[in-house]
Amino acid sequence: MLERNQLPLRPAVPGLAVAWVVVIAGASVVLSLFFACVTPFVALSAVSAVVLPRRMAVAAVLLAWLANQMVGYLVLDYPETWESYAWGLAIGIAAFASLTAALFVLRLAAGLTVTMSGAFLAGFIAYEGVLFAATAVLPSGDGAFSAAVVAEVLLINSLAAVGLICLHAGAAASRALVAAQPAPALL
Prior knowledge:
Blueprint: H1 17-35, H2 41-51, H3 54-74, H4 82-106, H5 112-134, H6 147-173
């Protein structure tokens, strides 16, 4: 199992983890405005899993989902129907399934690249799986899970993950909101 300090996105300084929760929630607002129904919750969940302590990651995903719903209903005029509310809840459940899958992969003993990629891919599979399962009871369009749509969702999430990683790497370079790299042990 990788130690958190072995990850290139070193965990946020404990006192400043709240700031990263705000960054994740803020990113959700911006991305919700830009992508509407394709807010990249997989990227938000995977980066939260890697960067934040577990409880803070849960808070970040919860706030990101709540922010997304507020933007949807208050700004983007989502329809106020039972189906719309149910899909909003399904998206929230899918976001938490994505976070859970990403956190699980981080616990496996594997190389850094495999672990990081695995966390994202496991999160994506969990997210899409929950949403696909929701179509059994909620109305959905015929092409909602076509290869083209799933590929677009994967691309948006991939680009968002890269953007969040770059944001975090920039903060690490400037030593803002990111823990300092531990000093090498003297033998």
